[in-house]
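ok so for the tutorial part 2 we go from a plain amino acid sequence to predicted structure tokens. step 1 is just haveing the sequence, like this:
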Amino acid sequence: MATKGIVKGIVSNLVTLEVDGPVSQNEICYISVGGVKLMSEVIKVIGKNAFVQVFESTRGMRVGDEAVFEGHMLEVTLGPGMLSRNYDGLQNDLDKMDGVFLKRGDYTYALNNDQLWEFKPLAAVGDKVEAGSWLGEVNENLQPHKIMVPFVLEGSFTIKSIVGAGSYKIEDTIAVITDEEGNDTVVTMIQKWPVKKALTCYKLKPRPYKLLETGVRIIDTVNPIVEGGTGFIPGPFGTGKTVLQHAISKQAEADIVIIAACGERANEVVEIFAEFPHLVDPHTGRKLMERTIIIANTSNMPVAAREASVYTAMTIAEYYRSMGLKVLLMADSTSRWAQALREMSNRLEELPGPDAFPMDLSAIVANFYARAGFVELKNGASGSVTFIGTVSPAGGNLKEPVTENTKKVARCFYALEQERADRKRYPAVNPIDSYSKYLEYPEFQEYIAKHISPNWIEMVDEIKTRMLRGKEIAEQINILGDDGVPVEYHITFWKSELIDFVILQQDAFDAIDAVTPLNRQEFMMDRVSRICRSDFRFDGFTEVMDYFKKLINVFKQMNYSEWESAEFKKFNEQLDEILAERIVNN
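step 2 — the prediction. this is what the tokens look like for a chain of 586 residues:
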């Protein structure tokens, strides 16, 4: 018999229930308010009292209202038909809902029960299988969507029967499997999994090392991220977080893209809905939305829904990873998720940490980021979830708790800087403060040396050193004036400007410059590095500025030219002519 409860206290979205039976942490219940059932999640249990967070507005709720517990945690429905969908944080299909505003207590089914899918079996009767084993596949927007043994099952099973190739609905029986005790389990195309629990149906989770090519030079060249890696993008309003996210989503070598709008302002979410359906996938030439899932949660929704949205997105990403696919998960913004945690912690009257965030904020962030990663599946295939979150620190303060705690766990740090954005140097990623810890991994260094260039890491270190030296000299010039420092200082400064304009800056709205393949990045970096190592002959600082501006102009024309086209080669020859004017050695 289901456990029931009575409302004893209400503090905004935190409701205290007195229960008449057993309840567990993260269990789901529905509270009846005026004939409408509101979904809630247990976040704390003390004796007979269960504290639940309600995913809806609690307006009209009264002491004495009844609640019924479901006996399971907050879970998502997994199966074919999720691609191209727009969900909220509870996986309600937004396209099935009526009206402009979501009605309280209105929940929709995440998938389409009536759609037929062309199923192709990958296993046969008598095969030994376990949780996560592939039984067959269907074609979902040109992606091979694997039908798997339910993740909740434990132990070894034998396939008793499996359907042949043909058209089936998601609720049709696909296979019957028998456990070691002779009990049969019916398998359909759909299954459920709790969002707060990581999916671990894989053999091994090694340290990731394969470069994830994004086409964004300041990432691929200077601060690379890997398949299954983690990174985050902090930055104040207007520094280009959304544009950078869109560029990575569109260009990264990923099979599936999941966008989690976590507590975003409504206009920012509308921008995602308005732009993503029109973005063209450079890998296939089709619409990017065909391999994208959007989890939308605006800032005017109850705070509890913000927490649910990031976990829902991560669980769906892990599901596709179990199919051997490369998944890119983008969350914007994890700051608002942390703010939701802070609000619920304050309502529970827990001991506050720095800036009133929960004391265990670092553990919560670390556990969530740890769910990303590169995995080797039990059948020999591999899959990955690459997670990049954005952080919106108040006033651009990168010392606040969310940024600091995320820094401890994320391997890549892309610090967007207001000063660079104001100077129109996009992407406005600070090249000195930003970093990628993957550059230090021996596995990654070996991979880069084999697939790109043995000198790649050395050139990256040189670029960062020159940018730092250029910044130091710029500060000296600001204090002492142009004629207060030696000509050699001006040459060093303009070499750093050459790196900045040619490699670090990129036009996201130009068809050619928006995406830079790795072979082109290697050529340009080698070209710029050789110039930076060369000595030049100048009589005064004004000659230095005019000369390097001319160099930068030709390089930028190369960036806007098709790779290895006649125009590209013409500009490359112009560079040689300009260099011959002033260069001392090469």
